[in-house]
């Protein structure tokens, strides 16, 4: 920019793109990433920013939650205008459960990794899904412990090689299969290098009123980029097997997507938004849990990463309904609403006097 | 002359035999006669089959600590009858089931062998039911023996079984049969209950119920917990009260209560809920605390309010889960890694369980830190007499929380800045609609703006402010209860459930010519009055229910100059503390003191 450009009557600056609530992409940015240059996690961060901007998510309504690991650092790098809770290793699900029950008006976005979720946090992950706590739960899955320098994680594939040369012989834990098995109402797998697929999946996950598990294969450029690793960028790119093309249509848009009959399937989300799945090869029914499990099983045997919306059942009732909570967030109840009247205490005291409580 | 309204009844039965209803009936009928009474359940970690004892102290003067000397024994358990009976002293009365193995009755004791099974047989033909009703026969026998009015027994029974008319009728018949048998065959005992007016308007309640009531009236909105004895009954009582009294007009719940998958999740949910603005608590015991370690350190450092009830019991793993202790002090005080210290409250009574049920929230939210309430099995699971609890006179204190309007007015927000000079920063809740509201919560190094830092200046700055907040805490936690006796050289310092044995022991010591002052610690960190008290007394006996003198250790850390004044009187056998242990401990040490001089 030349020093006199401000005074010069040249063409007007490019109009800043704003979304429905008048925010720009910059409003969804966070601090500068401190991850390794080229990290798949940064690409996911970019997709989250873009998805949230396009959905016009009010930042103050979002709570970002994470555990410990490279992935769990990323909430610092997006949507700085949202509250964030970077918890302890593997325990983000319990934080999410508490946050949601305290304020069920919030949209929860959880970021975790394969170590954080599949190893130390497997128990909490399972119970989060079991309770159906509404949170878009993103696993940035690279099959390796990055922050502690290259140990295998529990999602490392059989036969994959570590940077040190060690070969993994243990069966990987498939978090998507576990989620389906536990009755999760939204299970997807994607690839950090495919923002075109990831973005609509993220939007749908954020629209799901229940636990949405999004397992994103996110290659580690430092500890898992070598020959012989099944989760290097090159290996994932080569073995990525998308189930369908995804389009997310927000509830406020009345777009009819023009596809030939039989070519698409549609998933209607709780908030009225829709996910349109366009067939790529074999027909895939995301409402069929058996098909989801057999597809995951087959893809592992074939050494492929099947990606897309694996399972969707958006009708599942979330935990707040299960507990019969008031509509108002518990966090905003007044003293008058939560302190029973004196008559209640008197009744209890009389019961304790007579032994007829 | 019979001993009136001052004796101890000890009932030995088999766990799971339905003796609880019988024992409660005894306790309540004496209470209804206006005579102060306390009951302690000395039970095993077992659902059915192992020995269990219930001890009832009848005491007109209002002493409620456990009494080690038993005056009346009801022996129903063949496995323990020999030792139970052998332990009875001269002048005592034994009521024993026919056919029980028994030693020679101790000299001066009177034993009545009662054919309980034969008495109950015609009343309850079904042998399975009979096993549950037979205990009610000893209620009738005892009532007649020691003068409990039958109408009061019936009233107490009716209160418990009134909703089950068939069971009520059967149990009544069993009481009658026992009563009639005793009237026909037994001489009156040398112990009598005589009607008084000392329980008028009082309630009977256990500490866990009291804590649950406090939490409810304190406005709890979130609770998560994992089952563990002896804390489960707090969560269960709370669930019961909330279901009944905390529904909005449309019937929806103004609270959430979650049974977590473990204690790590329980505390995690509490922190998440509290961070998002709920009044959140959990309840646990020793092993659960261990699992909460990392998160409570996080909460201390990230400054998130949380209320954690620790109902103390003995040991790791299973330990002795049904035995009482005060042995979690040191582990709770510094729970977690790094420079961590926690606020602790020590309720000594059901009244304080109720009070702290509310106040713990106010303190946690005011100080933005975890607050641990260290109850114990004795207070929590035994039944205590109390005045009816007062309705809270004050509104709640939700601490320093900024709204969007506040932020608009101030135009600035730094999460970890000491603005007011009390070292307590301001916080905002997620959902606050203002561009300045958000901040990043982390356990890792952070500066005043909650930004990540490993700066060797910012980190100690945060730690020093937390230490200043600790100083603020000293002034706002419940203050010690001091009773100064003129001319007393010795003093007794205690906390929690030891209070009752200490009060009684001080009376006994006074009768023996040893005058004592006393201080009861109600909270940690200690307030200045604790130090001043130590400075005023040559010898301070620290009474506690653990092996290592944990309270004394904390006192020595804070008051090294007075360390040599502290002497421990310890009790750690798993049974509630008794006055004899305290009085004896102080007396022998004081005599030694005099001898040395």
Q: What topology emerges from the helices and strands here?
A:
The complex is a heterodimer of chains A (357) and B (597).
Chain A: H1 40-55, E1 62-66, H2 70-73, E2 83-86, H3 92-102, E3 107-113, H4 114-119, H5 122-131, E4 135-141, E5 144-145, E6 151-152, H6 175-181, E7 186-191, H7 195-207, E8 211-217, H8 233-239, E9 240-242, E10 244-249, E11 264-268, E12 274-279, H9 289-301, E13 305-312, H10 319-322, H11 335-338, H12 342-354
Parallel strand pairs in A: 1-2, 1-3, 3-4, 4-8, 7-8, 9-13
Antiparallel strand pairs in A: 5-6, 7-13, 10-12, 11-12
Helix pairs in contact in A: 1-7, 3-5, 6-9
Chain B: E1 3-4, E2 6-14, H1 19-32, E3 37-42, E4 51-59, E5 72-75, H2 81-86, E6 93-97, E7 110-114, H3 116-120, H4 127-146, H5 150-161, H6 165-185, E8 191-192, E9 203-206, H7 207-217, E10 222-225, H8 232-245, E11 256-259, H9 263-275, E12 280-284, H10 286-302, E13 306-314, E14 320-324, H11 329-333, E15 343-345, H12 350-367, E16 370-376, H13 377-381, E17 383-386, H14 404-410, E18 440-442, H15 458-476, E19 481-483, E20 490-495, H16 498-511, E21 516-521, E22 523-524, H17 528-536, E23 539-544, H18 550-558, E24 566-570, H19 579-596
Parallel strand pairs in B: 1-8, 2-5, 5-6, 6-7, 10-11, 10-12, 12-13, 13-16, 15-16, 20-21, 20-23, 23-24
Antiparallel strand pairs in B: 2-4, 3-4, 9-17, 13-14, 15-22, 19-21
Helix pairs in contact in B: 1-4, 1-5, 4-6, 5-6, 7-8, 7-12, 9-10, 16-19
Structure, explained:
Chain A has one domain (25-326): Thiamin diphosphate (ThDP)-binding fold, Pyr/PP domains (Rossmann fold), CATH 3.40.50. Chain A has twelve helices and 13 strands. Chain A has helices at residues 40-55, 70-73, 92-102, 114-119, 122-131, 175-181, 195-207, 233-239, 289-301, 319-322, 335-338, 342-354, and strands at residues 62-66, 83-86, 107-113, 135-141, 144-145, 151-152, 186-191, 211-217, 240-242, 244-249, 264-268, 274-279, 305-312. In chain A, strands 2-1-3-4-8-7-13-9 form an eight-stranded mixed beta sheet, with helices on both faces. In chain A, α1 (40-55) packs across α7 (195-207), α3 packs parallel to α5 and α6 (175-181) runs antiparallel to α9 (289-301). The N and C termini of chain A lie far apart (79 Å). The relative contact order of chain A is 0.12. With 597 residues, chain B is of the alpha/beta class. Chain B has four domains: 3-192, 3-Layer(aba) Sandwich (Pyruvate-ferredoxin Oxidoreductase, domain 3), CATH 3.40.920; 205-386, 3-Layer(aba) Sandwich (Rossmann fold), CATH 3.40.50; 404-476, no CATH class; 481-596, Rossmann fold (3-Layer(aba) Sandwich), CATH 3.40.50. Helix content of chain B is 40%, strand content 20%. In chain B, α1 (19-32) runs parallel beside α4 (127-146). Chain B is globular and about 85 Å long. Chains A and B meet through β2, α3, α5, α11 and α12 of A and α5, β9, α7, β11 and α9 of B. β2 (83-86) of chain A pairs parallel with β18 (440-442) of chain B.
């Amino acid at each position: 920019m030349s020093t006199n450009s401000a005074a010069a009557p040249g063409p007007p600056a490019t109009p800043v793109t704003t979304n429905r609530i008048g925010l720009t992409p910059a409003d969804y940015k966070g601090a500068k990433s401190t991850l390794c240059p080229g990290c798949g996690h940064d690409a996911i961060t970019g997709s989250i920013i873009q998805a949230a901007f396009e959905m016009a998510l009010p930042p103050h309504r979002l709570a970002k939650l994470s555990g410990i690991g490279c992935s769990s650092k990323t909430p610092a790098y997006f949507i700085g205008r949202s509250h964030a809770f970077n918890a302890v290793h593997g325990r983000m699900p319990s934080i999410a459960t508490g946050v949601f029950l305290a304020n069920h008006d919030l949209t929860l976005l959880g970021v975790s990794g394969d170590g954080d979720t599949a190893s130390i946090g497997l128990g909490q992950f399972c119970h989060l899904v079991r309770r159906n706590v509404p949170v878009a739960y993103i696993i940035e899955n690279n099959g390796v412990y990055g922050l502690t320098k290259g140990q295998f994680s529990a999602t490392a594939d059989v036969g994959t090689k570590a940077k040190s040369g060690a070969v993994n012989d243990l069966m990987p834990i498939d978090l998507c299969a576990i989620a389906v098995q536990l009755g999760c109402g939204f299970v997807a797998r994607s690839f950090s290098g495919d923002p075109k697929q990831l973005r609509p999946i993220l939007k749908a996950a954020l629209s799901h009123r229940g636990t949405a598990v999004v397992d994103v294969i996110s290659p580690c450029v430092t500890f898992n980029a070598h020959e012989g690793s099944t989760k290097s960028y090159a290996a994932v790119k080569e073995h990525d097997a998308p189930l369908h093309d995804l389009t997310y249509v927000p509830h406020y848009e009345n777009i009819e997507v023009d596809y030939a009959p039989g070519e698409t399937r549609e998933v209607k989300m709780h908030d009225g938004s829709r996910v349109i799945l366009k067939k790529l090869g074999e027909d895939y029914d995301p409402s069929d849990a058996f098909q989801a499990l057999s597809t995951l099983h087959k893809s592992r045997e074939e050494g492929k990463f099947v990606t897309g919306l694996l399972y969707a059942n958006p009708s599942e009732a979330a935990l707040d309904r299960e507990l019969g909570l008031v509509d108002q967030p518990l966090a905003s109840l007044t003293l008058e609403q939560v302190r029973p009247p004196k008559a209640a205490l008197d009744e209890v005291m009389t019961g304790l006097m007579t032994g007829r409580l | 002359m019979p001993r009136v309204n001052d004796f101890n009844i000890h009932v030995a039965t088999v766990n799971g035999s339905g003796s609880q209803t019988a024992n409660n009936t005894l306790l309540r009928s004496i209470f209804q006669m206006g005579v102060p009474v306390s009951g302690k359940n000395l039970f095993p970690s077992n659902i059915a089959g192992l020995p269990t004892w219930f001890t009832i102290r009848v005491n007109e003067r209002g002493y409620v600590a456990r009494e080690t000397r038993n005056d009346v024994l009801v022996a129903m358990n063949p496995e323990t009858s020999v030792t139970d009976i052998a332990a009875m002293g001269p002048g005592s009365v034994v009521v024993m089931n026919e056919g029980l193995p028994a030693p020679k009755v101790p000299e001066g004791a009177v034993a009545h062998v009662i054919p309980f099974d034969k008495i109950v047989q015609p009343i309850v033909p079904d042998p399975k039911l009979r096993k549950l009703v037979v205990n009610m026969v000893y209620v009738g026998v005892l009532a007649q023996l020691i003068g409990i009015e039958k109408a009061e027994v019936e009233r107490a029974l009716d209160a418990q079984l009134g909703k089950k008319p068939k069971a009520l009728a059967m149990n009544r018949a069993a009481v009658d049969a026992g009563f009639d048998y005793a009237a026909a065959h037994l001489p009156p005992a040398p112990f009598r209950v005589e009607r008084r007016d000392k329980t008028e308007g009082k309630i009977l309640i256990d500490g866990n119920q009291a804590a649950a009531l406090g939490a409810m009236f304190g406005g709890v909105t979130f609770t998560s917990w994992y089952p563990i004895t002896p804390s489960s009954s707090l969560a269960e009582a709370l669930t019961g009260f909330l279901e009944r009294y905390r529904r909005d007009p449309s019937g929806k719940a103004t609270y959430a209560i979650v049974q977590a998958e473990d204690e790590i999740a329980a505390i995690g949910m509490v922190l998440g809920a509290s961070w998002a603005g709920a009044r959140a608590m959990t309840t646990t015991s020793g092993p659960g605390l261990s699992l909460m370690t990392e998160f409570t350190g996080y909460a201390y450092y990230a400054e998130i309010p949380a209320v954690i009830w620790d109902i103390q019991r003995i040991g790791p793993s299973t330990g002795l889960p049904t035995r009482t202790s005060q042995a979690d002090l040191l582990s709770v005080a510094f729970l977690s890694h790094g420079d961590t210290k926690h606020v602790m409250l020590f309720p000594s009574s059901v009244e304080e369980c109720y009070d702290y049920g509310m106040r713990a929230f106010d303190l946690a939210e005011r100080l933005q830190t975890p607050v641990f309430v260290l109850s114990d099995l004795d207070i929590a699971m035994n039944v205590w007499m109390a005045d009816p609890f007062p309705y809270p006179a004050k509104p709640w204190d939700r601490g320093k929380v900024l709204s969007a309007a506040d932020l608009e007015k101030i135009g600035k927000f730094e999460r970890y800045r000491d603005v007011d000079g009390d070292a307590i920063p301001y916080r905002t809740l997620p959902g606050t609609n203002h561009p300045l509201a958000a901040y990043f919560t982390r356990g890792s190094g952070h500066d005043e703006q909650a930004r990540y830092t490993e700066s060797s200046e910012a980190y100690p700055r945060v730690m020093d402010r937390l230490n200043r907040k600790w100083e603020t805490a000293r002034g706002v936690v419940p203050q010690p209860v001091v009773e100064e006796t003129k001319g007393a050289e010795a003093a007794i310092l205690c906390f929690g459930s030891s209070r009752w044995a200490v009060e009684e022991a001080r009376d006994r010591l006074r009768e023996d010519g040893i005058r004592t002052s006393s201080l009861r610690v109600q909270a940690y960190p200690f307030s200045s009055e604790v130090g001043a008290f130590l400075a005023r007394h040559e010898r301070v006996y620290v009474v506690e229910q653990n092996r290592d003198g944990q309270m004394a250790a904390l006192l020595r850390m804070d008051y090294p100059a007075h360390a040599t004044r502290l002497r421990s009187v310890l009790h750690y056998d798993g049974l509630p503390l008794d006055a004899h242990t305290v009085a004896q401990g102080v007396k022998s040490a004081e005599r030694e003191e005099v001898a040395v001089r």
